[in-house]
Amino acid sequence: MSINPPISDNQTVILGKETPLKLDCGVTLEAINMAYCTYGTLNADKSNAILICHALTGDQFAASRQPVTGKNGWWEIMIGPGKVLDTDKYFIVCSNVLGGCMGTTGPSDIDPKTGKPYGLKFPIITIGDMVRAQAMLQDYLEIESWFSVIGGSMGGMQTLQWASAYPERVFSAIPIACAARHSAQNIAFHEVGRQAVMADPNWLGGDYYASDKKPTAGLAVARMAAHVTYLSEAALHRKFGRNLQDRDNLTYGFDADFQVESYLRYQGINFVDRFDANSYLYITRAMDYFDLVEDHGGALAKAFEGAKTRFCVVSFTSDWLFPTSENKDIVQALIAAAANVSFVEVETDKGHDAFLLDTPEMFKTINGFLQSSAKSRGLLS
Amino acid sequence: MSINPPISDNQTVILGKETPLKLDCGVTLEAINMAYCTYGTLNADKSNAILICHALTGDQFAASRQPVTGKNGWWEIMIGPGKVLDTDKYFIVCSNVLGGCMGTTGPSDIDPKTGKPYGLKFPIITIGDMVRAQAMLQDYLEIESWFSVIGGSMGGMQTLQWASAYPERVFSAIPIACAARHSAQNIAFHEVGRQAVMADPNWLGGDYYASDKKPTAGLAVARMAAHVTYLSEAALHRKFGRNLQDRDNLTYGFDADFQVESYLRYQGINFVDRFDANSYLYITRAMDYFDLVEDHGGALAKAFEGAKTRFCVVSFTSDWLFPTSENKDIVQALIAAAANVSFVEVETDKGHDAFLLDTPEMFKTINGFLQSSAKSRGLLS
């Protein structure tokens, strides 16, 4: 084993001071904070950099201690010496998305116009805006082209957006468990979550920052509803089934009788400490708005026309939030665009969350793809 | 066409004054109100009565005007002269479930011990208790055996419970889109709904009846979350897709941009006027507790041993809440119990709600089953 390569602690850089970020909604953000972590070492010709795009409730702490929870990074299973995203070989960058709440500019930050937190005065942002901001970070790091851009779920949407908007800046792209446009069912689930937040009287129309209370109850409900969609029916059945908290007895009450109930409550309660309710609204909205098909006049293939980027699309058999059929739509468009694409549907009963879990077939697939891409880029002899 | 047979308006009877209802939780309810509607005419030997069991948010107004909403009954598509549940031939009974809020005793009723509404002092009820209460209504109506018991979703659970607990009182049974036990995923979705209600500060621990506010915001969120599960992804896609309210423009805000959002909000807002939040808690709990397998030592077939009841089990291809696999478990148990059972998986993209909608293959299946059952019972020459 190698000695662990350097991990940079959380860094924040101010971007866009000279060329401000123009958003899809028409608003311009004069300057933004961009918070990110890096793992591994950038090589001399800056050709070994991988950008990790995080999911809805993720953050830049992909492989380092999350400062609020004190827990391990959310993708440590993928990142490290000898792992799939091998920090002995690659320089890994993971930034908090625009609209987020872990250091990159979002609705909880101070609006320079008022001196108060933005709240709902923060402009609506899109996946395109998130990627534009990441491109400003790429410029700042003086990396001409990412060796790879990778992400699951909303991270996969960003990966697709990267390949579509900046093909010359992406050598390879690995969108996992995502879609080229958010489905009606997924918009519906997001809307339930937003309404749960907005129904909480402590939300105060988004201006809860100066209050001593936060819309934690509403946000916890939103998280619980979303969390059910991240797991498969089979995974819930295997993990919990109808197992009771008290092995023998129903309580004939509304306490958490079933293990699945206490698990969900735990997911809800723990989430609210580390996540801003308004960020949840903005980021879910960005996902809802994502529609690479509509952006290209109804023909997804046009999103990738002339692409030289190599693609590896990964889906999971038990993912009902971003089912294989939606991932296949991406693959078919890439084929129609004559792109270099491989596609693997990984057999797993873990549901959408499989991209975060110990999923050996996914590791093997991405590892193989990165190896061949590295050879092709001259990173490996 | 025949002249419309008599429709009895909503009636309420007090049951259990002499033999009180003993609940599964151990509590005894001294006397209960039972509200019901009837359609058609009971024949001389009382052999043509059909009991309809309603679903979670249904009521006794299966084929008559709902007094709160002023809308048509929820199953008018099935009930009437010449329809599948033919009021020229059958005497149809539909009662509000125990724990409900449309006249049958539930948490919004006065607790005789305190003179105030029960709220959370109402005992936890089960599907078994609902059916026990319906059996008391059957006694009151002096109907020895139902020609048929039919229901979808929670109505299907009651149908199964009837056939298991009172086989000699059920000539035929038609459980639609249900399961012999509530799955972990379904318990999880119910728990999200309950937490949404309980998170509403107007819920007041269930004691909101004397207050001028009700937990409508929380209940609306619960309804929205549940409603997504009643539809299939395909139905949502077909009905709404990513269609915008304003045909041309995203608003870049949190108003209902997408038609699916405004549809869901409408479902939530309209629900709270006609439904009691505590009833929602109690009835979802009853569904979660339903487990005919566990009740019979892990062998579902034992639930139906020696059954003379004829069964027709119906499932829908696109129902992911009560998928065909769970309906097949019922069928297999019935076969193992040597019961007379037919099973049809109806091809439809309408999801769980298909049992409430214009689903011709379901009509045809149930119609055929009722015809042959009617012959077998000597109702038809």
UniProtKB/TrEMBL annotation, chains A, B:
Pfam families: Abhydrolase_1 (PF00561). Residues 48-357 form the AB hydrolase-1 domain. One of its GO terms (cellular component) is cytoplasm. Pathway: Amino-acid biosynthesis; L-methionine biosynthesis via de novo pathway; O-acetyl-L-homoserine from L-homoserine: step 1/1. It is an enzyme of class 2 (transferase). Its main location: cytoplasm. SUPFAM superfamilies: alpha/beta-Hydrolases (SSF53474). Its EC number is 2.3.1.31. It comes from the Bacteria. The active site is at S153 (nucleophile), D319, H352. It catalyses: L-homoserine + acetyl-CoA = O-acetyl-L-homoserine + CoA. Homodimer. Transfers an acetyl group from acetyl-CoA to L-homoserine, forming acetyl-L-homoserine. Belongs to the AB hydrolase superfamily. MetX family. This is Homoserine O-acetyltransferase. It comes from Sneathiella litorea. The lineage of its organism: Bacteria, Pseudomonadati, Pseudomonadota, Alphaproteobacteria, Sneathiellales.
